[in-house]
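Q: Structure tokens for this one, please.
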Amino acid sequence: MVMFASDALNPGVRKREVFGWAMYDFANSGYTTVVLTAVFAAYFVGAVAGGAEWATFAWTLALGISNAIVMFTMPVIGAWADRRGAKKRLLVFSTVGCVLGTAALAAVGPGAVLLGMLLVAISNVFFAWGESLAAAFLPELARPEAMGRVSGWGWSLGYLGGMLALGLSLAYVLWAQSQGQQAADFVPVTMWITAVLFGAAALVTFSLLQERTGRTGAALPEERLAGERNALRQLRRTFEQARDHRDFMWLLGCAVAYQGGVAVTIALAAIYAEQVIGFVQQETMVLIFVLNIAAALGAFAFGYGQDRLGHKRALAVTLLGWVATCVIAALTTTKGGFWYAAAIAGVCMGSSQSAGRAMAGLLAPPAQLAEFYGLWTFATRLASILGPLSYGAITWATGGNQRVAIAATAVLFLLGLLLLWPVDMARGRERALLSSAGRG
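A: Here is the predicted structure, written as tokens:
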């Protein structure tokens, strides 16, 4: 609790509430670390799909479909949550959905490709909804000048949660392998470990985090349909007013580009390590574990550095680091060389994710936080479609050459740098505040 300094928080916000909010990052990071990155992704390609040439594309297709669903639903959900004061209720719903979906992945065995794709898509939809709703609480908790710092607290604690889930899974995998078990025997247990840890840690969030946005209309059953229509109209107005929030929109464009590259790392790092560099599964899990340590340190340190250096400049530095990561990963032929790339990626992972979330919070009108974070999720989920799918398509088109695909990913980060250039944080923040004042 010492790390949650009172001078970084808005009036009336208690340290325990910020801790509860940050614990959601701790809770859900096990899903991205174990399911999407370190264990299930490689298991799906190598065991479930039998290492077929189309296996990587099938994995990215499942993620792409789920991200498309999120992309078109989250802005409406966010607008509805703002109107009904329902961010916390929807956060509980999405968490339960992801926990159940993760546990269901334990039923996916060799050959069950369609079942695996379906369950990954379902669990990822619920995960993304929850991630966006949790992010929308950030501007309510942190002072504007400390947004990067508080966001970094959450991301760094989140990576600790990812390490705990992965560490427990790794311990079980090593024991299972010593007993002669195969991946089809021990991977399902890691899904249960991840689901239980997610659900248990999220209870801390639900007990401490408050819903601060009040309802703006009645909640009678006969009025719910009208409320949903109002949310849709509100969302449409937000897009129509995009020119009035041009810095936020430039940031969304930047996010589509660079988050596409980040999504490649999350979805395909383990697959690349095993199929291209020659890692075995336990080596991959150790690699991802260490990457999470670097990411936690990067998110925490950059959170403070971001507030001092400036959000835009801090994000630009991390994007350059991502370019270096892609180049090293594409050229290296040794496990040692790939470790260097992974270390840089770890630092950039936490810092770039934290920086983007904080910048979105500063540029979003205070009266429309969930709605604007819904637009942020729209952009990041579009990125999560374009990045991994382009990687999978390039791999398939080149006969399985993932080196070409990872090199092409560097272009996404360079494009992100170009789209970041026009963003003016001071101008964007002023417009956000004026927008909320006008609504009041």
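A few notes: Confidence is low (pLDDT under 50) at residues 216-228. Residues 3 and 218 are 39 Å apart (CA to CA).
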